[in-house]
Amino acid sequence: MEDNEYDDTISVPQSSGIDPAQLDAIVNNRATEVRNLLFRGANAQAVIASLQNPPFGLDPQPIKDKNTQIVMEALSSVNSAEIVNVVKQLTSAQLDLAMKFIYRGMASPDIYNPSVLLAWHEKVVEVGGLATITRVLTDRQPL
What digits encode the pLDDT tens for the residues 125-135? Predict the structure, then answer.
């Protein structure tokens, strides 16, 4: 590999580029949408909605934390027997995002249920393969 083939600046954490107040409103609207879907029993759709365009990188941490809570609510609402069916509905990018949130949740076992997250981890790897783990561990855009 030549020196000019690798551009390290691409891997530097970025932000979504959205004003924090607007980003907070987007996350709040997503929370409302996800909770409405959960209330209607549309758990798969709630998981998919929770994974849409999350704040990342240099975005404000409180907003990223609020978004993580929304994703965790959606993941926790799915019955363990139904997880694989939900995972099969996710795109490759959504599988990667789900895995990122799973690892983020595992880092806080006092807040999020590790057994639920391990069940999700198993099914995401089953459907997405080990490449999902590799992509998440090498991604430099933290949630």
Answer: 999 999 999 99
Which residue in 77, 65, 75, 72 sits closest to 27, CA to CA? 65
SS3 category, 127: helix
- pTM assigned to the model: 0.87
SS3 category, 108: coil
Cα angle, residue 5 at apex, residues 4 and 6 outer, rounded to 5°: 95
As a whole number of angstroms, the distance between CA 82 and CA 45 comes to 13
Q: Are 127 and 87 in contact (CB under 8 A)?
A: yes
Q: Tell which residue, 12, 11, 4, 52, has the closest CA to residue 31.
A: 52
Alpha helices in the chain (DSSP H): 20-39, 43-50, 61-77, 83-87, 92-106, 114-128, 130-138
Give the CA diameter of the chain.
55
Residue 7: CB atoms within 10 Å: 9
State the chain's mean pLDDT as an integer: 90
